[in-house]
């Protein structure tokens, strides 16, 4: 037997079936090893950020600031005095607190009101002041430092009361809140999901199959991500995405293999032969699906954001592990326990068969009605506005959100909204003075702090204490009261960058990071779409040996994605359906980093379902050549399977949707809508209608592509579910 696409699966399955106990024990040992790695690793190695773009001007400025120990403050301390922050006791305690913070490991620089006397750090009522703490390292290192420092200085400190906040602290609180929400939701949702699996498989024992596959895939991906976090920046959110996706794919793959095993057993094959047959036919579909999903996730790597790249790595790792566990472990378990899960002679769904006949009998009316419904879902997407998550993603009343809101109202400027200009090599004092005056005159700038002094509206207002030694770089800080995502902040960044500098300069800080991140996303989206579409088209072209079917698959997947994005605009941007999805704060825009990840997952699952359906349609068409019956047979045999898989995944997404963190809620709702729309409207109506209308054109391909691979040669003595290499061959192999 040649080791081709079906042959190597047969050999692998035969080995697992011939040595089931050894295979299961090997899987148990591997699982125990990866669980130990996952448990020994800590989330301290993972990042709560990763949303800043790399390779941009602001990223270069941030790198220079870290190099010269002058980063913008990721941790901000709000210090409250009973009387005035200018009282003798407040000055003494405030200066002592600033020295304590500066002495902590991981602190790059500290700017306190009592040491700098900057009016931007003093509240309007004179009873509060700020200490800005710049932290060393990448976002993961900064989060570790903030987690260690903040508890030590929070609360009553002499005559002062201290509360923590800032960009890094908000990220820490969001990660902790999201983890609590997901744990609480899973305790409720897990029993519901298991009940659905028992219903779908018709057996308590069979329902454990996807749980075993999912546990192995998730544990392996977690261990890998924790190890990877030791050498590069990995988002802590990637663990949640890996868990969600891993169990979703495990349900899909296990359902497919177990369903095929039962069908082969119902035809009279012995348990070992049925396990090998299921691994060869359904296992090949699993491998093709895993390849397509891997390609979809790989497209996320083009985005210059560590957070999205973490998701790409997590997605690829979990899908490859899920597919490997399915084609290796599931046949071994079936060989051991297959006789106890029974066979189903009614392998197809009568309800889905009737629907398929109705749709293929009158494709135009069905397609028009479905298209109108999808158009209603897509319509809001045309009014989408884009931004980035801020403190409003946290639940109302959370400490980090209240802190930020208080800063916005009580202080003329906030340290986390500063615009930083790095100059290297260092120009002369006269050039710096002239440059700082020009920046201070720009609209939105409250104050400019430079080595030559402080400036307001072109006027030199105060001197600053110069750092000892000869510097190789200097930076100017423009304090603003502008929302970093506002149009005014964008114009300010552009104006600063348009000013003729006294030498090489890089503009960074929060407003510049937002401007650069938006530009980077807008520039990379077309490349990501092109890569995702081209690679999946090529994979489906080779799998289906058709030109039209892959184009249809990608187009309909894009349609279901757009419908999902439209629903997100309607709910989260415009603020509808709070009674259904839970309370959240409407910001008037969607987080720009969510759609790429949502599209990658939903696109992958859509093509996952498409591969399941096409495999059945193609088998029947190759065996009998009856186009309409092939469509009906494919829908009838996969409709229930795909619907159950989509429902289970959507229920799992309810865990994300119930979170108090708006970004997680957005992911849960968006993915739930995407998979349900795809599994029902697209897969049940649009696909059969389109294929019926296009007729024989579905199967056209160039002559070189039409040549069947060795594993696709049909055995004319068997039915439509058989490819060459009969069960007798598989039996002989083992």
The fourth-level CATH homologous superfamily of the largest domain is Multidrug efflux transporter AcrB transmembrane domain
What is the end-to-end distance?
Answer: 12 Å
Task: Using the CA coordinates, give the radius of gyration.
Answer: 30 Å
Strand content: 5-15%
CATH class value of the largest domain: Mainly Alpha
Looking across the biggest beta sheet, what order are the strands in?
10-9-8-11-7-12
Task: Explain what you see.
- This protein has 734 residues and is of the alpha+beta class.
- It has 3 domains: 1-40 and 202-347, Multidrug efflux transporter AcrB transmembrane domain (Multidrug efflux transporter AcrB transmembrane fold); 57-169 and 400-484, no CATH class; 348-388 and 512-702, Multidrug efflux transporter AcrB transmembrane domain (Multidrug efflux transporter AcrB transmembrane fold), CATH 1.20.1640.
- The chain has 24 helices and 13 strands.
- The strands form 3 sheets. The chain has a 6-stranded antiparallel beta sheet, with helices on both faces. A 5-stranded antiparallel beta sheet has the order 2-3-1-5-4, sandwiched between helices. Strands 6-13 form a two-stranded parallel ribbon.
- β9 (453-456) and β10 (459-462) form a beta hairpin.
- The radius of gyration is 30 Å and the shape is elongated.
- The protein starts with 6 loop residues before the first helix and ends with a helix.
- Residues 1-6 and 709-734 have low confidence and may be disordered.
């Amino acid at each position: 037997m040649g080791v081709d696409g079906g042959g190597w699966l047969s050999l692998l399955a035969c080995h697992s079936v011939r040595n089931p106990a050894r295979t299961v024990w090997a899987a148990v040992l591997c699982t125990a090893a990866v669980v130990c790695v996952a448990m020994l690793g800590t989330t301290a190695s993972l990042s709560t950020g990763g949303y800043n773009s790399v390779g941009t001007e602001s990223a270069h400025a941030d790198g220079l600031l870290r190099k010269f120990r002058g980063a913008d403050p990721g941790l901000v301390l709000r210090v409250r005095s009973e009387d005035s922050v200018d009282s003798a006791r407040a000055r003494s305690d405030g200066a002592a607190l600033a020295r304590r913070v500066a002495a902590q490991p991981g602190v790059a620089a500290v700017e306190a009101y009592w040491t700098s006397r900057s009016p931007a750090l003093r509240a309007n009522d004179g009873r509060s002041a700020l200490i800005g703490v710049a932290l060393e390292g990448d976002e993961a290192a900064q989060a570790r430092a903030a987690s260690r420092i903040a508890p030590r200085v929070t609360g009553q400190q002499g005559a002062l009361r201290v509360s923590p906040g800032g960009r890094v602290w908000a990220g820490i609180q969001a990660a902790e809140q999201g983890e609590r929400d997901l744990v609480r939701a899973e305790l409720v949702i897990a029993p519901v999901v298991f009940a659905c699996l028992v219903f779908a498989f018709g057996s308590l024992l069979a329902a454990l199959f996807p749980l075993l596959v999912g546990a192995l895939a998730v544990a392996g991906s977690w261990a890998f991500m924790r190890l990877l976090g030791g050498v590069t920046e990995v988002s802590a959110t990637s663990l949640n995405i890996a868990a969600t996706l891993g169990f979703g794919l495990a349900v899909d793959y296990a359902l497919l293999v177990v369903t095929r095993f039962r069908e082969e057993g119902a035809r009279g094959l012995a348990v070992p032969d049925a396990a090998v047959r299921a691994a060869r036919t359904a296992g090949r579909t699993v491998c093709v699906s895993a390849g397509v999903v891997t390609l979809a996730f790989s497209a996320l790597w083009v985005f210059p954001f560590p957070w999205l790249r973490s998701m790409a790595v997590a997605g690829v790792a979990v899908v490859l592990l899920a597919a490997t566990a399915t084609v290796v472990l599931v046949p071994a378990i079936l060989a051991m326990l297959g006789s106890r899960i029974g066979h189903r002679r009614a392998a197809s769904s009568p309800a889905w068969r009737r629907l398929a006949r109705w749709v293929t009998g009158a494709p135009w009316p069905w397609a028009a009605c479905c298209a109108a419904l999808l158009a209603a879902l897509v319509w809001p997407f045309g009014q989408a506005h884009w931004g980035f998550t801020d403190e409003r993603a946290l639940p109302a009343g959370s400490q980090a959100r209240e802190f930020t809101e208080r800063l916005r109202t009580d202080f003329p400027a906030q340290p986390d909204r500063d615009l930083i200009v790095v100059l290297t090599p260092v120009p002369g004092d006269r050039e710096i003075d002239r440059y700082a005056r020009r920046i201070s005159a720009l609209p939105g700038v409250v104050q400019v702090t430079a080595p030559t002094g402080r400036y307001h509206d072109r006027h030199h207002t105060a001197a600053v204490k110069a750092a000892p030694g000869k510097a190789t770089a200097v930076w100017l800080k423009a304090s603003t009261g502008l929302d970093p995502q506002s149009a005014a902040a964008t114009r300010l960044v552009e104006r600063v960058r348009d000013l003729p500098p006294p030498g090489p300069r890089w503009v960074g800080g929060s407003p510049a990071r937002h401007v650069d991140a938006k530009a980077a996303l807008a520039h990379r989206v077309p490349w990501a779409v092109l890569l995702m579409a081209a690679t999946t088209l090529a994979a489906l072209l080779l799998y289906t040996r058709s030109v039209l079917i892959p184009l249809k698959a990608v187009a309909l997947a894009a349609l279901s994605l757009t419908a999902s994005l439209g629903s997100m605009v309607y709910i989260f941007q415009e603020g509808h359906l709070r009674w259904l999805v839970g309370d959240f704060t409407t910001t008037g825009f969607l987080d720009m980093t969510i759609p790429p990840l949502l599209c990658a997952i939903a696109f992958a699952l859509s093509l996952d379902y498409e591969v399941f359906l096409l495999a059945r349609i193609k088998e029947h068409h190759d065996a009998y050549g009856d186009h309409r019956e092939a469509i009906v047979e494919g829908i009838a045999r996969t409709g229930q399977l795909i619907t159950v898989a989509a429902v289970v995944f959507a229920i799992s997404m309810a865990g994300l949707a119930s979170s108090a963190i708006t970004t997680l809620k957005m992911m849960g709702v968006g993915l739930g809508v995407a998979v349900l729309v795809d599994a029902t409207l697209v897969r049940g109506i649009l696909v059969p209608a389109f294929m019926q209308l296009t007729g024989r054109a579905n199967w056209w391909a160039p002559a070189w592509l039409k040549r069947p691979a060795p594993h696709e040669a049909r055995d004319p003595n068997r039915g439509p579910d058989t490819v060459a290499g009969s069960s007798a061959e598989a039996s002989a192999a083992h």
